[in-house]
Amino acid sequence: xxxxxxxxxxxxxxxxxxxxxxxxxxxxxxxxxxxxxxxxxxxxxxxxxxxxxxxxxxxxxxxxxxxxxxxxxxxxxxxxxxxxxxxxxxxxxxxxxxxxxxxxxxxxxxxxxxxxxxxxxxxxxxxxxxxxxxxxxxxxxxxxxxxxxxxxxxxxxxxxxxxxxxxxxxxxxxxxxxx
Length: 179
Hints:
By secondary structure, the chain is an alpha+beta fold.
């Protein structure tokens, strides 16, 4: 019988805006978050992102190597605007067909949000994967595979957080000058 592997990671974000004490800074940030395609591009990068329609995107994650396996998840995302909050969730996922791993039951779940709170951008993202243990890795203990999976997912979220930290303030300032 095939054994299921499940692992997840969570990352929080808190970015203070320069000049956040200025009047209207929270309203500016809320208005910026309503530019959902722009914000998603800042989060994930333009090169790996495809717009499928309004509030619908496809994101190709970087190729990941875990032990002897290489995988490249491709995730369809939906965004939803709430007052002062942008929610981003995965709605579908598959692996790039050129990957070495032949898995039919790979599931990836992304739930995240960004919110304007005062003069700060706050957010949280959780990423979870469920998959049947590949035959190639059947000799490795489940705990080793799952802890490695957690480490890989934490690295993906950490990379997105680092990108957001670098690019967000820069793009927000450009957007404010334009508006």
